[in-house]
Amino acid sequence: MTPLSVSASTTIIKQGEVDATKFYVLESGKCEVYLFNESWAEERLVHTYHPGSGFGELALLYSAPRAATVKAVMACKLWVMERSVYSAVKHNFDQQMIQQRQQLVEKVPLLQMLSEDHKAILAEALEMVDFQHDQRILNEQEVGDKFFIIREGNVNVTKQGNVIDKLGPGDYFGERALIQDDKRAASVVAQGYVVCYTLSRQNFNNILGPIEVLWRYEVLKKVPILFNLSDRQAWSLAQQMQPAHFKANEVVLRKGDEGDTFYVIEDGLFSIFDENKCELARVGKGSCFGELALLRRDVRAANVVAIADSKCLLLHRDVFNSMLGSLGQIQHVWRFEALRRVPILAQLTPGQRSSLCSAFKQESFKAGKRIVKQGEQGDRFYIVESGIVGVFKDGCENPLVKLGPTSYFGELSLLRNDKRAASVICLTNVTVLSLNRAGFDELLGPLQQIMQTQASSYDAVTSNKLGTQVKLEDLKKHGVLGTGGFGRVLLVSHCGKFYALKCMSKAYVKESNLQDHVKRERDIMLELQCPFIVNLLATFKDTYTVYMLMESIMGGELFTYLQKRRKPLSENHARFYAACVIGAFEYLQERHLVYRDLKPENLLINVDGYLKVTDFGFAKKMPTGGKTYTLCGTPEYLAPELVTQTGHNHAADWWAVGVLIYELVTGRPPFYDDDRVKMFKKICDVKFSFPQHVSEELRDLIKRLLMKKPAMRLGAQKNGASDVKAHAWFKGFNWPAFERQELQPPYLPKVAGPGDASNFVIPADANTHPAMQQPKRYVSTGVFKDF
């Protein structure tokens, strides 16, 4: 904090002041707080601050107009904290705490098989408990379901009253409780004050799944030919694997035999050798062999014999195909979808895109290996299949950006003979799919001809789901549907079909430093195609503006509908709308996306009465186990981890679902308070109550969605949205019919036709929005060049 001295009558904070970033602590002197209301003739004194008082604390969290004026009554000495300093200090502290937990988890052998992502999730879920001197933590012969890691202090391990071991910080005990209900082999007693991290088997299973299935899942995720499986598909296969035992010297596979089974070694050792009995490899626990049998009918390429008594887990091709379909088809669909996200390939027909899928070559690289070198001539395009790569430029130590699965780089090498603009280096072990220009040209002809004038045209569609060529000038404008932070949404039509066109001023976006924000929204929406999400159909740009063409949803905002009602929704009505949001979030979560802006204003009602989620400005890719620290969203819907800025992930979206359902059935958010400080305290304390009319089933659902600890939140655990859909409040709800949109909605909006915008409240200043006033020229380069 920095010192600040002010004289008497100085205004330290002014009511209504925007972009405030400072928090103050009064060391000496006296300050008065004044409040002004338009109905009052003059401002009123409402409070007095004395030494030791602090004020302006909301500025440390987010930018909001100051709620009151603070004036110095006499000469005062204050200490000032800037938001940027607070955020940096807090972030560093939180990172140290996370790192400490992860290091403790690393020491437990039973947990070594977990991926780094899952270790991070587990570390986050640990609960801190403390014990006093001589307090028993475990009792000998009791059945236990918790394991412990010592953070602080020392314990004695006793058996029949005799001390057999002493443990201290970093040591652990009771870990077998994560596997089964064993009786404790010894007692553990605190020696002095002790702090431990603990986790029960039930919570472990809820968060990550049973440890034995989790081990199989971790192995499957490392098999190259299975990289294209979703997390859900890999987990389903892990549950279906069957055990098999092999005696020492027993032959498992013979070279030349037709194979239909894939093997994962659970315990033991195997030798792989050729027809000349030359050993090619020895493989043990966690290794696998025979995986190509899942992909195609083929003969075994080598012999495999058990060296010692061993156990394997088996998966048959027939089981795989009956559950998921052909592995070849899965790989083809994955590649097809990855290609669809590449803007310069947007003009390819589905047939052309399908042809390219089979032309890719899979390549593997170790961590630290350079795939592309800055300045070299490039002729190869890459899609990341697994792992993480970093993009580096001009010798910088830190990557400009990190790219994960389905990301791509080098796409312009298919178009022209340019030198690489940056280096791409593997941050982890990586597999990529690659395609050179010669292979592309051989299949489809030169890309330049396919794109025609697309690459240079201002009004070109850079990504298109319409199935037809449309240019910006082809769109007929009918009026304004709404305004946002930096643009307007227009109702437009083409060939009798109506769409919503989001218009954003390049200059306004740049002045607001939101270029990455807009680009991320575009990139994420290009990936999405979901019945419960407003889908992006095409993007355009011209000299002054970038555009997103989306499907038009003409039933209006859920917010407007709720405001027109005289009372809150019934639980049946709310259940239907909650199901729509759950459907959208399930889709997003499967794609490792967090939404972060749920509120009734961002839910649109279509003409069939179903909700669609809109506005993906705050959406972000979030890998398993990852966290992000940007404070965003609507204050009433913020989860505790967002308020405290300790890092958040998709669990924050499920918290917001709990807030939404509560608001739907009661008429207001659960933590609402006119005083934002009090509201944030309620959120962090999870302090709220239910009106009497709320059913017990709904109370339980909301409580489980509004769990303070993110890892314990319904929807954020191993089964994801399935846990929410299976909750008792949804008993009898026909999910399959709902997903086919065959259920009768509780409300149908009145829409006279596809161009009827009467359900939208058009702002009075819609045509004078600051972002759309006197246009400022911003040349189409930089972040907008590929829009």
CATH architecture annotation of the largest domain:
Orthogonal Bundle
Average pLDDT reading: 86
Structural domains: how many: 6
The beta-strand count equals 41
Rounded to an integer in angstroms, the radius of gyration calculated over CA atoms is: 30 Å
End-to-end separation: 43 Å
Under CATH, the topology of the largest domain is which? Transferase(Phosphotransferase), domain 1
Return the CATH class of the largest domain: Mainly Alpha
Task: Tell me the quaternary state.
Answer: single chain
Anisotropy-based shape:
globular
> Strand-residue fraction?
25-35%
Structural class by helix and strand composition: alpha+beta
Proportion of helical residues: 25-40%
Supply the number of helical segments.
20
Q: What's the CATH H-level homologous superfamily of the largest domain?
A: Transferase(Phosphotransferase) domain 1
Low-confidence stretches: 452-464, 774-781
* Biggest sheet statistics: 6 strands, antiparallel
Binding site for ATP: 481-489, 502
Organism: Ostreobium quekettii
Domain Cyclic nucleotide-binding: 1-107, 110-210, 225-341, 344-461
Domain AGC-kinase C-terminal: 731-787
